[in-house]
Specification:
By secondary structure, this protein is of the alpha/beta class. The protein is 47% helix and 16% strand. The strands form two sheets. An eight-stranded parallel β-barrel has the order 1-2-3-5-8-9-10-12, surrounded by seven helices. It has a two-stranded antiparallel sheet with strand order 6-7. Strand 4, helix 3 and strand 5 form a beta-alpha-beta unit. The longest helix has 23 residues. It is globular, with a radius of gyration of 20 Å.
């Protein structure tokens, strides 16, 4: 199972420091973090697209290209590209270029986004939310299969045989579909034969099993092999030397972020008890010492019927750069070896029994 990191490249506004200065510092830290992730053997680093003042990841492909030039092995992905408000031709060109820079390590994870700022920013009507995504996804798939493209849709000018360049190193540029909890999204991914990344940021992971089973069934019925229908998980996580330390260090960052989002969306205030509940053996968060996190990964793997990997959303910005570096080091040097060796079966059996209760 692969282990990865996802980031929105968060910053925390500081009085007397300009946004440009903060952004410059955060990008410098990001590059140091991905260099370390590469050295310690992590498998993927994803940058998620956002268009908000607290994030500087409005152009993931540019950041990923800089990361590609500083690394040798780690795969580089968007997490996610908000395809509904972008141009599929430009997305393909950006990631094909990233594939050339990285010598075949680029991957696109596409989704509709968890925020809506990009739609008015780029002149798209939210009334066409789902229609935009499906049309553009179909074009993106066609672009990776054909160099000279004939295509016609409703929301973009037709292509009448124009060539789309450059072409990537990989024969088929990897495209994964990022989904939340909408059944239609799981069904669509299966019908299109696209690998899946499931965002599990709350609740209990085993409750996603029926949706994943539906995805796999739809894919099989559409003629795709199990090897084409892989499932990965995006989740919140953090690793420290002890579980208590990990929880205490992550809690302020989690509270800051989700209280802000909660005020926008009308959610009740987040509490430490609710946060701790999500750290439970069958909860959604991967927070703890290396053994705890490895055990949770193995549990989720079994609960969901086998997954390709887990990418953890580490909360850089509120967490210091030094703490982020330590978490990355522990993921590569301790969690991954534990996972590869398989954690002891006793805790896993206990967890599965607990989840089934």
């Amino acid at each position: 199972m692969e282990i990865g990191i996802d980031s929105f490249v968060e910053i925390v506004p500081s009085e007397g420091v300009s946004a440009a200065e903060q952004g410059q510092q955060r990008v410098r830290e990001l590059l140091e973090e991905v260099e370390l992730a590469d050295r310690v053997g992590l498998d993927v680093y994803g940058i998620g697209e956002h268009h908000r003042p607290e994030y500087i990841a409005s152009s993931p492909a540019v950041l990923l290209a800089a990361m590609a030039a500083r690394t040798e092995r780690i795969h580089l992905a968007s997490a996610v590209t908000v395809l509904s408000s972008d141009d599929p031709v430009r997305v393909f060109q950006d990631f094909a270029t990233l594939d050339l820079i990285s010598q075949g390590r680029a991957e696109i994870i596409v989704g509709r986004g968890s925020f809506i700022e990009s739609y008015p920013l780029f002149g798209f009507d939210l009334q066409h939310y789902d229609e935009l995504f499906l049309e553009k996804l179909q074009l993106l798939i066609k672009l990776r299969e054909e160099t000279y493209v004939h295509w016609e849709g409703k929301h973009r000018a037709a292509l009448t045989g124009q060539g789309v360049f450059p072409r990537p190193v990989q024969k088929l540029l990897p495209i994964r579909l990022g989904v939340g909890g909408t059944p239609q999204s799981f069904l669509r991914a299966g019908q299109l034969g696209l690998p899946l990344t499931v965002a599990i940021i709350g609740g209990e992971p085993h409750r996603f099993r029926p949706l994943i089973d539906m995805y796999r069934k739809a894919g099989k019925q559409a003629g795709y092999s199990p090897e084409q229908l892989t499932v990965a998980v995006h989740a919140l996580g953090y690793v420290a030397d002890t579980t208590e330390q990990a929880a205490d260090e992550l809690w302020p960052a989690y509270q800051h972020t989700f209280s802000r989002i909660g005020r926008e969306r009308g959610w009740p205030p987040t509490t430490r008890s609710a946060f701790d509940a999500q750290r439970s053996p069958t909860g959604a968060f991967f927070v703890g010492d290396p053994q705890t996190v490895a055990t949770k990964m193995r549990y989720v793997d079994e609960a969901l019927g086998g997954i390709k990997g887990v990418s953890l959303m580490l909360s850089g910005g509120m967490l210091s750069h030094a703490k982020m570096m330590r978490a990355i080091e522990l993921l590569g040097t301790e969690v991954k070896p534990l996972l590869n060796a398989e954690v002891s079966t006793a805790p896993r059996e206990m967890l599965i029994a607990s989840a089934s209760a």
